[in-house]
Amino acid sequence: MHSIEHVPAQKMREFIERCLARLGLPRRDAGAVAELMTEADLQGADGHGIFRLPQYVRRIQAGAVNVRPNIHLERERSAMALVHGDNGMGHLVMKFAAHTAIAKARTAGSAWVGVKMSNHAGPASLYAKMAMREDMIGLYLAVGNANHLPPWGGLEMLLSTNPIAVAIPGGDEPPIVLDMAPTVAAYGKVKVRAQRGEMMPEGWMVDREGRPLTDPRRMAEGLLLPIGGYKGYGLALVFGLLAGTLNGAAMGRAVVDFNADDSSVTNTGHAIVALDISAFDEVDAFKARVDDIARQMRSAERMKGVERIWLPGEQSQAKHAQRLRDGVPLAPALRRALDELAAELGVESLG
């Protein structure tokens, strides 16, 4: 059995950039997408980083993604904007939207930016953290790129794993970074398990009779389970209305399953909110209060057998440091797929 290989992040970033540039993305855009995809892998979002590259390549080759988009503001007021992504790579569209929200929040105190005509953009926290690095609170919502969740009590898959991320800066303590889907597991995690030949725990998916489904190779037969039962369904619905329907982006039956369809335009919707902390209080005073709350949570009396209380984002941050030092783990099946992709595109492989 082949062992997991660890690839330096810089090599990974350069490989992604080579592939995307070969497909016609301007070098600067290819580099920006590669940087964000590599960041996804570094923080442990294995279903959203280089794992997605073969799929992105197929969709670009099939004409489903515009490699030279005119990303622009379609509507604008002082504290809001609607971004038209012109069907560009989602990472580029969302980077533009996040920077727009940050710039507006600096003058208005807060800003909400909606997005239409975009594509899959990787893990939600990437964009919430862009605002956080500017001493703001970032909030991100999106409509997922495939429906795997039925309305509570139904069988038709009308909702996706519409994620939410919130990033709140700390002072001496790490930031609080929540990044979650309203389902017990994101579909990308199911796909990663299938590629690695690993089973799923009970509680991630059920079949159409409501029985537990633990073999990820049978994912097409299953339904994802929402967190908290009907409450998770409600969150998925509301997040989709805010990130999709409000912006004129796809939602419900209009969502294109980009796992099964390489050629259709997805019209993916997102929303990014930036809150300028300085509009509410002195930044350092706020961060000190966040630190205090973080320490309260971590030092709380623990249940028997619990070694540590974690805060949202702490484990991803630890994984980021480890992978930056030791390299990003690549399963053998993924490595083979990337080598085949390099040969197909005629670019230098990961090495």
Properties at a glance:
351 residues; alpha+beta; Ribosomal Protein S8, Chain: A, domain 1; Wheat Germ Agglutinin (Isolectin 2), domain 1; 2 domains; 3-stranded antiparallel β-sheet; 10 helices; 14 strands
Walk me through this protein's architecture:
This protein has 351 residues and is an alpha+beta fold. The chain has 2 domains: 252 residues, Malate/L-lactate/L-sulpholactate dehydrogenase, NADPH binding domain (Ribosomal Protein S8, Chain: A, domain 1), CATH 3.30.1370.60; 42 residues, Wheat Germ Agglutinin (Isolectin 2), domain 1, CATH 3.30.60. Helices cover 38% and strands 18% of the residues. It is built from 10 helices and 14 strands. The strands form 4 sheets. A 7-stranded mixed β-sheet has the order 2-3-4-13-5-8-9, with helices on both faces. Strand 8 and strand 9 form a beta hairpin. The chain starts with a strand and ends in a 6-residue tail after the last helix.
The name of the CATH topology of the largest domain is Ribosomal Protein S8, Chain: A, domain 1
Report the strand count: 14
| Helix/strand structural class | alpha+beta
N to C succession of SSEs? EHHHEEHEHEEEEEHEEEHEHHEH
In what range is the share of β-strand residues? 15-25%
What's the overall geometry?
globular
The tally of helices reads: 10
User: Main beta sheet, described?
Assistant: 7 strands, mixed
CATH superfamily of the largest domain: Malate/L-lactate/L-sulpholactate dehydrogenase, NADPH binding domain
